[in-house]
Write a structure and sequence with these properties.
8-stranded antiparallel β-sheet, about 25% strand, 8-stranded mixed β-sheet, alpha+beta
Length: about 1300
């Protein structure tokens, strides 16, 4: 046993381009197939990969290249590598001398022995030390293998099969496994709930079977010894192909457990592997293999041996499974046994049975790899409804103050949606504390959602009276199948349960709680639709308006009567200094000042307490100053016993509050219309469902109406005529017309029949349907659309940032300007009284009274007329209406940022397959090269067998063709399968008719070159003919010789040509990127009139093409549908995903097209341009209003004889906010380009020469994405003809 074969190496990688956890799983899944990889853990939040591998089998450059080939960018995060050696089977003669010798080697850091893991760790700098072989040579001097005496090892270790009675759930299993695995003498423990057995491997010198039984009984279970003869217990590892879900795993485990002599089985879906312990004298490996095969899976024995000390099973029962804790990036453990590489350049199946040791624990503890898991686990997201915000100053105040709180990572507040999204550290703060902090600022706050995971349910649970009740519920539920976590609050009686919807559901959870005598119901959630309706705030402002109006009307009457009095008439005096007019105004103003202004005072106090100034502060100051000034001058006049009463501003308070409350009332009514689209989507969500049970003849045996919250995946539901479909599913009986207008924007009903998918929330036609639920709760299409629209309407466009910044300084600036105005007019008045009153008469008029009256009038008017609300509403109102209109048209825009950037798009890059084309390729013709190699049917059979393991659309087309044309019901077995993304596949195929194994290679020309297969010149010319007709040609070789080719065609979408025409006439350059060959790409481009083509582009190169366009100062929109498009979608300025595409692509995109129509790309860009024009108009109105009105209120036009009163200023201020909202509502009249005749006419008028930063529209260029050309001779270097000439 050589040291070299047991060494592992750990590296850290920087990985960029990941957008979601699907990317993480894709990277981990692909790397796990590499020969020599031990473990891989990818962190999405840190954009980092932690890789452990066998350096004698795998190099770090191969790992980086594999990640790059997937479309991501990978590079070394650190030049320090950790070389590690497990010392269980080795002895060190002189440890100190070994460490000294290692440290003396240039480039080696401080080496050490980890006593806990019994591992030698050698950190070294890869830049200073090119090869680790010098380290191996140094280790060989001091490290030698331990003696391998099988008999002694057999004596040291023993295995026992125990019966365990009393287990009720998986929590019991975990409890037994966890407790026993902590004992040093226990080397493996596996417990089977169904079989009520446990398999234990242990050191006989430290513990015996009776003591193990005693430990289990101490935990409250009954245990007994079934088998303790090591020689009779056999371990077998099997590779299983064909599993797709946990149901497959359960099916295999239950089938194998039914066999006599099976002690233990563990099946890993991710590793496609089963570990089995069985009685060697009762059952054979072939019988086990046959049972799994009969269950519908392909199986291969990869290890079979009696249990010995050299083959200890992992100490953790979770080894070789994907481990996801707290929603973190999973870690895949791959056990590898080094073996001699085969001659063929293929990935052969490796022996996945490593000597059972502590590899899993070691990988999890290398260099603190759990740190990221803990940090990310503490990060939580909280959505809060926030009421009482009036302008951007309120938003800025909340964001600024909450960010100061301990534990807050980020916060974003949406004014119109009245929502806030907070990311916080759960170790430092809580959702309740965050809500309290917002409430302390003077705003109403309530939790909408505080979970990051989709499958969580809140239940209201009765009979929870003590902590023991909480413990019982959490313990029992966490042990149930499908339950990820359970948390119960003793004070509120609310339980939060996270679950796997494919294994369990809400009804199952409630049923378990009921069985435990804890009745439960779905807790009432915060109704965001009421919040969007603004009903509560509209009612409040209407009440304030009506109350103020009662005082406003008498004030107007008094002012009119006073103006009608003759100039020579003396006013009626109550007593010296107080006239009847001022007394009546005082009586009318006081109730408004006390009650009408109450909420302004409360919010102003809370805002000023935190050092912030909002619109409420301006209103409170204006009313208070006007009222206080009036009281003060009357008191002074009364004290001085003046003959006449001074001029007052009592009318300011009732008039200002009346106009402001009227404006707010109308403003919120208009705001309700801006969120009308989202409200309609939310109202579509059904409330009830009819749950049924069917017998074997599909007759209904039971029918029950339940809340849609209780619907589970797999339920059979009945949909009555005219009713809304309760959830996403597929029809199992019946046919009907379905109205999907509010989902797709199409008002023509769609015919659906048995087997068709239906969308929850759409309306059934005239017939009864029986459907099977496949997506429930927040996973339904409608819920995801609502979530996307909500997120879009709460996000901020970059253009809004300037308005927010202005708003944060606006109110303090206005207060300062008001003080300056007051001071200037006081100075001017006392210096030149005639500037204020040209007909001033010193013998009659009181100079001080006149100056102070006018100065305060102008100061109060400045406070009343200034309006930051108009600036703050300019962007969010337009974004809300724009995204809402887009949602109704089937265009989901994920926020203000993509909405703003989309209007700048100058280049649109389309993926070909599935985007420009239907994505359903079909074999058009088969070209047979040499019948001596294989005949026509043989070629089809071999190709179909090979492609049956591939997920590529072209491979699926070959398989479908074989099934249809030669009636193939079963394919030959494949082995040594190898796939190269963007090139092709290679594998060994065992023909079903005989035992002959054929070497099959399928792919493009480059793949043939790579596998040293010659393509005949004449045959190549024949292939080119098909490629020039727009077909994709897939070559096939058998046993190292070219055998034939498949000409495959994919139909272009009906609206592709029309969409591209519209884009070009909108002065946008259209580019196509494809991995297909040049001729096929040119043929497609010519048919739809595309400007430029990137051909032969591997998935990993798409992101580079996007970057090259961006480097030429283009704003790039990428349109795609597949997993391989997701990095390019994320890199593009605007990523647009086809709704029929993969979840990864949709997650990475900025805009999602619900319908599979390319004209919606035109709609998205045109809607963005229309919305941005409206935003600019809104800003124009808001800025011009303040530029004109503030100087006017300050008295700048006094020399021209024009001065406005404070009540006039308040009316203008209210009108400004309403006008901006009404301006945004004009977007509701938007008509998409496909339905707008004027749009078409405008395009026809646009006949001028069109240029873009990329290329003239009339030209077409082709760029090649590989080092090989698809020219006729197939061996020529890449053409010098390039797409860009910059």
């Amino acid at each position: 046993m050589d040291i070299d074969s047991k060494l592992t190496q750990q590296i850290l990688l920087d990985i960029t381009g990941m957008t979601c956890h699907s990317c993480v799983k894709a990277i981990q899944g692909n790397l796990a197939t590499l020969k020599g990889l031990q473990s891989i853990k990818v962190s999405l939040s840190q954009e980092q990969g932690d890789v452990v591998y066998f350096p004698n089998l795998l190099g770090y450059r191969e790992i980086i290249n594999e990640v790059d080939d997937m479309g991501f960018e990978a590079k070394l995060k650190s030049n320090i590598f950790n070389l590690q050696l497990q010392l269980e089977t080795f002895s060190i003669s002189d440890q100190n001398q070994l460490l000294q010798d290692l440290t003396a080697i240039p480039g080696v850091e401080n080496s050490y022995v980890d006593e806990n893991l019994n591992t030698l760790v050698i950190p070294y700098n890869c830049d200073l030390l090119d090869s680790y072989t010098i380290l191996v040579d140094c280790c060989r001097k001091w490290i030698t293998p331990k003696a391998n005496n099988d008999q002694n090892l057999q004596d040291l270790d023993n295995i026992a099969v125990l019966s365990v009675i009393g287990m009720t759930c998986k929590s019991c299993v975990k409890s037994i496994e966890g407790t026993l695995s902590e004992l040093p003498a226990i080397q493996f423990i596996g417990v089977s709930l169904d079989n009520k057995q446990a398999v234990v491997q242990f050191d006989i010198n430290q513990i015996n079977t009776a003591e193990i039984v005693e430990n289990i009984e101490d935990m409250g279970f009954d245990a007994g010894i079934l088998q303790e003869q090591t020689s009779n217990v056999v371990y077998i590892a099997m590779e299983i192909e064909g599993m797709s879900c946990n149901s497959c795993v359960q099916h295999i485990e239950s089938s194998v457990f039914a066999l006599s002599g099976i002690y233990y089985i563990r099946v890993s879906l991710q590793q496609r592997k089963a570990d089995i312990f069985y009685a060697g004298g009762q059952i054979s490996p072939e019988a086990i293999s046959e049972t799994i095969t009969d269950a519908g899976f392909d199986v291969k024995i990869i290890h079979n041996q009696n249990i010995t000390a050299d083959a200890k099973v992992p100490t953790s029962p979770n080894t070789n499974v994907i481990d996801s804790e707290n929603n973190q990036s999973p870690t895949i453990q791959v056990s590898i046994v080094p073996n001699t590489p085969e001659k063929k350049p293929l990935n052969s199946h490796t022996d996945n049975f490593e000597s059972f040791n502590k590899l899993k624990r070691k990988a999890n503890n290398i260099d603190g790899s759990n740190t990221d898991r803990k940090i990310t686990a503490a990060m939580k997201s909280l959505q809060v409804s926030i009421s009482g915000m009036t302008c951007s100053s309120c938003v800025a105040n909340i964001e600024r103050e909450i960010k100061k709180k301990k534990g807050i990572i980020s916060i974003g507040v949406a004014l119109l949606a009245e929502r806030g999204e907070v990311t916080f550290d759960a170790n430092l703060t809580t959702p309740a504390a965050i809500v309290n902090d917002i409430t302390d600022l003077g705003f109403g706050a309530a939790i909408i959602s505080s979970n990051n995971d989709s499958n969580k349910i809140e239940l209201s649970i009765d009979n929870v009276h003590s902590q023991s009740n909480v413990y019982e519920i959490e313990t029992k539920l966490q042990g149930c199948l499908g339950i990820v976590s359970a948390s119960v609050s003793l004070s509120s009686g609310i339980g939060i349960f996270e679950y796997d919807s494919s294994l369990t559901g809400v009804r199952d959870i409630i049923r378990v709680l009921n069985d435990l005598s804890y009745p439960a119901l779905v807790a009432t959630r915060h109704d965001t639709s009421k919040q969007l309706n603004h009903d509560k705030v509209i009612k409040r402002w209407r009440t304030i308006f009506l109350f103020s109006l009662i005082c406003f009307i008498p004030v107007v009457g008094i002012l009119i009567a006073s103006a009608a009095m003759k100039s020579d008439e003396e006013p009626v005096m109550i007593f010296p200094g107080l006239s009847l007019k001022n007394l009546l105004l005082l009586i009318a103003a006081t109730p408004v000042q006390i009650f009408g202004c109450k909420q302004f005072y409360v919010r102003s106090y809370k805002a000023l307490k935190h050092g912030a100034a909002t619109m409420d502060v301006l209103i409170a100051m204006a009313t208070t100053i006007a009222y206080s000034y009036s009281i003060t001058v009357i008191i002074v006049a009364a004290v001085m016993k003046q003959d006449r009463s001074p001029v007052t501003f009592f009318e300011t308070t009732p008039m200002l509050v009346t106009f402001i409350s009227l404006g707010r009332w109308l403003e919120h009514k208009a705001k309700r219309k801006t969120s009308e689209a989202l409200s309609k989507l939310q109202s579509m969500q059904p409330t009830d469902a009819v749950l049924i049970e069917l017998d074997s003849d599909n007759r209904i045996t039971k029918e029950e109406t339940i809340s849609v919250s209780y619907v589970q995946q797999g339920d059979t539901l009945k949909v009555l005529p005219g009713a809304r479909i309760p959830t996403d599913g597929y029809i199992i009986e019946g046919s009907s017309l379905i109205n999907e207008s509010l989902i797709t924007g199409e008002y023509i009903s769609v015919s659906k029949s048995e087997g068709d998918m239906v969308i929850g929330g759409t309306i059934n036609g005239a017939n009864v349907l029986i459907i099977k639920a496949c997506r429930v709760g927040v996973d339904t299409t409608l819920s995801q659309i609502v979530r996307l629209v909500e997120e879009a309407q709460t996000s901020k466009a970059p253009v809004q940032l300037l308005a927010d910044k202005i708003a944060s300084y606006f109110v303090p600036g206005i207060i300062l300007l008001s003080i300056i105005t007051l001071s200037i007019w006081i100075c001017i008045g006392f210096e030149n009284i005639y500037a204020i009153k040209p007909d001033y008469d010193a013998s009659v008029d009181n100079k001080t009274e006149i100056v102070m009256e006018f100065a305060f009038l102008c100061g109060i008017s400045v406070l009343a007329i200034a309006c930051p609300c108009a600036l703050g509403l300019a962007t969010p109102t337009a974004v809300m209406v724009g995204t809402g209109v887009g949602a109704q048209l089937g265009v989901l825009i994920k926020g203000g940022l993509p909405l703003e950037i989309a209007h700048k798009v100058s280049v649109v890059m389309f993926d070909k397959t599935g985007t420009l084309t239907q994505g359903k390729p079909r074999v058009k013709e088969i070209l047979l090269f040499d019948s001596n190699i294989v005949d026509y049917n043989g070629l089809i059979a071999l190709a179909a067998a090979a492609e049956s393991n591939s997920e590529h659309p072209l491979g699926s087309a070959i398989v479908q063709y074989a099934e249809e044309k030669i009636n193939m019901s079963s394919f030959g077995k494949t082995s040594n399968f190898q796939s190269a993304t963007g090139f092709g596949i290679r594998c060994d195929v065992s023909e079903s008719s005989n035992a002959i194994v054929r070497d099959v290679v399928i792919g493009n020309r480059h793949w043939m070159h790579a596998n040293e297969i010659t393509v005949n010149q004449g045959f190549n010319e024949n292939i080119c003919m098909y490629e020039n007709r727009g077909m994709s040609v897939v070559l096939a070789a058998v046993d190292g010789y070219l055998a034939g080719a498949f000409a495959i065609t994919d139909t272009i979408k009906d609206d592709a040509k029309y969409a591209i025409k519209n884009l070009r006439q909108m002065n946008i350059t259209v580019v196509m990127v494809t991995g297909d060959n040049r001729r096929t790409a040119d043929a497609i481009a010519k048919e739809v009139n595309i400007d430029a083509v990137y051909a032969n582009v591997k998935p990993s190169d798409k992101i580079a093409k996007v970057k090259s366009l961006q480097n030429s100062k283009n704003t790039v929109a990428m349109v795609g549908d597949g997993i391989n498009d997701s990095p390019a979608l994320a890199q593009a300025d605007v990523g647009i995903a086809i709704g029929s595409g993969t979840d990864v692509a949709i997650e990475a995109a900025d805009i999602v097209l619900v319908k599979d129509k390319l004209m919606d790309v035109v709609t998205a860009i045109d809607l963005s341009r229309t919305t941005m024009r409206r935003i600019k108009w809104n800003y124009f109105f808001a800025i011009v209003y303040n530029i004109i009105c503030i100087p006017t209120a300050a008295g700048v036009f006094k020399p021209l004889g024009f001065v406005i009163q404070p009540w006039m200023a308040s009316a203008a201020m209210a009108a400004s906010s309403v006008s901006v909202v009404l301006s945004s509502l004009l977007l509701k009249r938007y008509i998409k380009p496909a339905n707008r005749a004027s749009f078409i006419q405008k395009l026809r008028r646009n006949r001028g020469t069109r240029y873009s930063k990329l290329i003239k529209a009339s030209d077409r260029g082709t760029s090649y994405g590989s080092d090989f050309s698809d020219s006729d001779n197939d061996f020529s270097p890449a053409s010098d003809k390039q797409l860009l000439s910059v």
